[in-house]
Design brief:
Layout (H helix, E strand, L loop, with lengths): L7 H24 L3 H10 L2 E5 L6 H15 L2 E6 L6 H11 L5 E2 L15 E4 L9 H6 L9 H10 L3 E7 L1 H5 L3 H11 L3 E6 L4 H11 L10 E2 L2 H6 L6 E9 L10 H22 L7 E6 L3 H14 L7 E4 L6 H8 L5 E5 L11 E6 L6 H12 L16 E6 L5 H13 L11 E6 L2 E6 L29 H10 L3 H8 L12 H10 L3 E4 L7 E6 L7 H7 L14 E10 L7 E8 L2 H13 L7 H16 L8 H14 L3 H12 L2 E6 L3 E4 L20 H11 L4 E6 L23 E5 L8 E6 L2 H4 L9 E2 L3 E2 L1 E6 L4 E8 L2 E7 L10
Parallel strand pairs: 1-6, 1-7, 2-4, 2-5, 3-4, 5-6, 8-13, 9-11, 9-12, 10-11, 12-13, 24-27
Antiparallel strand pairs: 8-18, 14-15, 16-21, 17-20, 18-19, 22-23, 23-24, 25-26, 27-28, 28-29
Length: about 800
């Protein structure tokens, strides 16, 4: 690996970071042995967060910074990598780019004589946590050396300061309580550099709250902008996101987006490969395929890439580990590998400079994850540095199998674009003052003056200055007493009455006793004594055969060959608000999605799940033969055609079951209850058959009942209970599911239904989902009326359902109940 020269923007960031740490070092030196004030400086000014896009040279910059600071004082460094698999890569970079820094090993160099100025331990948080075997070894003194806890004490006593680099700072601290304890209680670094490509203000605040080390708000962070990386030739100009939009919404869940994304991504990969060759660049591009964690998706992607898209088996490699490791690094850099399939969890922490294209089988879940996905494509390969190349080589391309997941990538683009170039002023938040020859430390924020004389102690880091103990109840009582409110307040706080006090007046006691009564409301004399309900018998033994006989496949057989649909491929840049390009293309249906959808269509019904699919297959095969069509010899192909026909015509089974159940429908009389009872006194009604308004009416139902109660066209009305022995039910409207209309109304001069009408009152939230009830018919009482209150018109309207759609059919009037429509 060649020694690289820092680019201008990297050198500026290096110089600003070095100046900040030198300022902190000066403050340490001025304090001498004042350990308490040193700890304030360590936590207030000793930590810096560096944010920079992936590929802009964070690791190189950190290597040079460590070398610069180690040339000026004795420092031993701990460098924490996000995964154990990238330790060797990090050590190799340090050795190549900062050869003056000795690389130390936790197993053999935990001795004071093994520690050398500028020495770097490269490790992970797991390697020093006491919750695992490896970590416990490093924390115990023995033949292999001192415990790390003792090594740090000895090193400080020998004049060393401790430095720490946290690569991808957000990754190690989120769930590792042991890491936090090691950092704050054992390591206690004097200099801390936290590096990340996915900065989050919330993560920085959580880090400060849990460790005491302050990195400030975003304006206090060191930051490198994407534009500097692009201008210097380290990064591509942009990353384009490609997603697929289905024109026909019904086909959206059937399209095989995963294979579509793989197909289009491989086409772009081959185009880039041809472009590189045409421009004399000897480089094999790498296509990345990111799959969810699971072998099924890996196998599907690999088989499709090799079997259908024609990649050589040796050129498609799979990485199955849950973290980046040395195998992943070697695969990413092996020119014989054209396609690398890896798990979603590995999007963080590995370099793939050959990569131009990425097919994401599942979308970026959030902005931070999206930044890591985009980061795999942003780097410019070193063979392209300093070269003018065609426009298609200046961009990376992400093909999304899940269009809805675009939000994470769009947010990632915004997050990377928002990283400013912010390195010129990285002043500390602490100042050492010497008053009467005594050094001390003050925490000073921008714009605040220094305190020259007596001052309050610096609050402990992480403790809110605004926290205060509320005044005790005694002092509150004193204030109430001064305002003559204490007697009143006592009445509110006392739980038991004083001697001689009454718990309530006689009126209250009477009302309480009245509330405990049970009221009876008898059926009125003029009211009907019985009503007619529909009854659905149990399913017959040959129900499956009856249903299948009702299905006519002949009119829908052409749907068996409609195996694809039109989609729009939309391409847009994640970083620039440029032109959005839409291209129309065909996308095939997923056989797995079709099979699952067809299965769902069957299992929703009360049919035998073994015999019914077999009967459907036989009926479908017979329909093909009867139409002079030769059925497929392959049973699997025949089932795929059947699945397609069923999914394309998802009412076939439902309508057949509805017809069968309707033919089995019967009616019976049900007796109305001789009385209803209530624990509460109910409002009287003029036309209700029990003379009261029931207590279970919601607002719209009560309003509607009051309209019935004052209308001369209404002879009587009844609140129809649900699923009771006296209920009136409709079963023929759907698939044998009971429907209990809210109201049964005796209508003056009604010509049908024995003068009785059924009315269902539906609120706006249920009107669409229960729209089929608007076309339900009772065998005796006829069409049920669905009504709803229109708040704009301030009136009730009637709804009708046709072809699956609900529409208003005019204002409700009781006169309309006289007819059946």
């Amino acid at each position: 690996m060649a020694v690289l020269e820092l680019l201008r923007f990297q050198q500026e960031a290096h110089d600003a970071l070095a100046a900040r740490f030198r300022e902190v070092r000066t403050q340490y030196d001025r304090l001498g042995d004042n350990l308490a004030d040193q700890d304030v400086i360590r936590k207030r000014s000793g930590a810096i967060l560096l944010q920079a896009p992936t590929g802009s040279g964070k690791t190189l910059l950190a290597c040079r910074l460590l070398a610069t600071l180690s040339d000026e004082e004795r420092i031993v460094w701990f460098w924490f990598a996000p995964f154990s698999g990238v330790i060797d890569q990090t050590r190799a970079t340090i050795q190549a780019q900062s050869p003056t820094l000795p690389l130390l090993n936790l197993e053999v160099d935990r001795r004071l004589d093994g520690v050398r100025p500028g020495g770097v331990f490269v490790t992970t948080w797991q390697s020093v946590a006491t919750s695992n075997k490896e970590g416990r070894k490093a924390r115990i003194s023995g033949d292999n050396g001192l415990a790390l806890d003792d090594l740090f004490v000895a090193a400080r006593e020998d004049g060393y300061r401790i430095g720490c680099v946290v690569d991808e700072a957000h990754h190690g601290f989120k769930k590792a309580a042991e890491a936090k304890r090691f950092f704050t209680e054992t390591l206690q670094p004097d200099y801390t550099l936290m590096m990340t490509a996915t900065p989050k203000d919330a993560d920085a605040k959580a880090f400060a709250r849990e460790t005491g080390y302050q990195v400030g708000d975003e304006e206090n962070w060191a930051s490198v902008c994407r534009h500097d990386g692009v201008k210097s030739g380290l990064l591509k100009k942009g990353v384009k996101m490609v997603r697929f939009i289905v024109r026909n919404a019904d086909d959206g869940k059937l399209v095989d987006f995963e294979r579509t994304a793989l197909r289009e991504c491989s086409a772009m990969h081959r185009r880039i490969k041809e472009t590189l060759a045409a421009n004399g660049i000897s480089l094999t591009p790498l296509m990345l395929v990111q799959v969810p964690n699971g072998g099924q998706h890996i196998d599907m992607a690999r088989d499709y890439l090799i079997g259908t898209l024609g990649f050589a088996e040796s050129s498609v490699r799979v990485h199955t580990a849950s973290e980046p490791d040395s195998d992943l690094m070697s695969l990413a850099n092996d020119p014989s590998v054209e396609v690398l399939i890896f798990k979603m969890a590995v999007a963080l922490g590995f370099d793939a400079p050959r990569a131009w294209t990425l097919a994401a089988m599942r979308g970026a879940r959030d902005a931070s994850f999206g930044v890591q996905v985009v980061g795999r494509l942003m780097r410019r390969h070193r063979l392209l540095h300093g070269r003018e190349v065609p426009p298609e080589l200046e961009h990376g391309y992400v093909f999304l199998a899940n269009s809805e997941a675009q939000e994470g990538l769009m947010e990632a683009g915004d997050l990377i674009n928002r990283m400013p170039n912010q390195i010129s002023e990285l002043g500390s938040q602490t100042v050492v003052t010497i008053i009467a020859e005594t050094p001390g430390v003050q925490v000073v924020r921008c714009g605040e003056p220094l305190r020259l004389f007596g001052s309050a102690p610096v609050p402990e880091v992480g403790v809110s200055a605004a926290s205060a103990t509320p005044a005790p109840l005694g002092s509150q009582g004193f204030l109430l007493d001064q305002a003559d409110w204490l007697p009143v307040a006592s009445n509110f706080t006392r739980e038991t009455p004083m001697a001689g006090e009454s718990r309530g007046s006689s009126l209250i006691l009477a009302l309480a006793a009245d509330a405990r009564r049970e009221y009876q409301f008898p059926l009125r004399e003029h009211a009907p004594q019985t009503l007619v309900t529909e009854k659905m018998p149990p399913l017959p033994d040959d129900f499956e055969e009856q249903v299948v006989a009702q299905i006519d496949f002949t009119t829908v057989l052409s749907d068996r060959d409609r195996v694809r649909t039109k989609v729009v491929q939309r391409t847009q840049d994640l970083f620039e608000p440029g032109e959005i390009i839409d291209e129309e293309m065909w996308a095939s249906f997923s056989t797995e999605a079709l099979a699952e959808k067809a299965r769902q269509l069957v299992i929703q019904f009360d049919v035998d799940q073994y015999s019914f699919p077999r009967l459907l297959e036989e009926r479908f095969r017979a329909a093909l033969i009867n139409q002079g069509i030769e059925p497929p010899q392959d049973d699997e192909q025949l089932l795929q055609q059947l699945d397609l026909v069923l999914v394309r015509n998802d009412r076939l089974i439902a309508e057949a079951i509805k017809r069968c159940r309707a033919a089995q429908l019967s009616t019976v009389e049900v007796a109305l209850l001789p009385e209803i009872r209530s624990e509460f006194r109910l409002d009287p009604s003029k036309r209700n058959i029990y003379g009261v308004f029931p207590a279970d009416l919601n607002n719209d139902e009560r309003h509607f009942a009051e309209l019935l109660d004052i209308d001369e066209n209404v002879l009587w009305w009844h609140r129809n209970p649900s699923q009771q022995s006296s209920s009136v039910a409709l079963y023929g409207w759907s698939l044998g599911k009971g429907f209990f209309p809210d109201f049964i109304v005796g209508v003056k001069d009604r010509k049908v239904g024995n003068g009785i009408a059924l009315v269902e009152v539906k609120g706006p939230q249920l009107q669409y989902f229960e729209r089929a009830k608007a076309s339900a018919h009772h065998k005796i009482y006829g069409l049920a009326f669905m009504v709803g209150y229109n708040r704009e018109k301030k009136d009730f309207v009637i709804f009708r359902e046709e072809a699956g759609n609900l529409y208003e059919n005019g204002r409700f009037e009781t006169a309309r109940l006289r007819w059946g429509n």
